[in-house]
Amino acid sequence: MNKLMSKMNSSQWFIVLWLVGFLGLAFIAGLFRFLLYLAYPS
């Protein structure tokens, strides 16, 4: 794992971190909407 990390440059790190953050936010938003749907069934 360390060899892979040292090979990656800053722009690759930026893309990876951005993707992780975006997916994390999307997951949290989906979970929140699911909880709201359970709390207030239409």
Descriptive account of the structure:
By secondary structure, the chain is mainly alpha-helical. The protein is 86% helix and 0% strand. It has two helices and no strands. It starts with a helix and ends with a helix. 0% of the residues are buried. The model has no long low-confidence stretch (mean pLDDT 90).
Looking at this protein, list some descriptive labels:
42 residues, mainly alpha, 2 helices
Q: What order do the helices and strands come in, and which of them pair?
A:
Elements: H1 2-7, H2 10-39
Radius of gyration: 17 Å
Low confidence ranges: none
Give the integer mean of the pLDDT values: 90
Helix content: over 70%
Principal-axes shape call = rod-shaped
The helix/strand order is HH
Give the class from helix and strand content and strand pairing: mainly alpha
What gap, in angstroms, lies between the N and C termini? 48 Å
Strand percentage lies at under 5%
Largest sheet: none
Short description:
This protein is mostly helical and 42 residues long. It has helices spanning 2-7, 10-39. The model has no long low-confidence stretch (mean pLDDT 90).
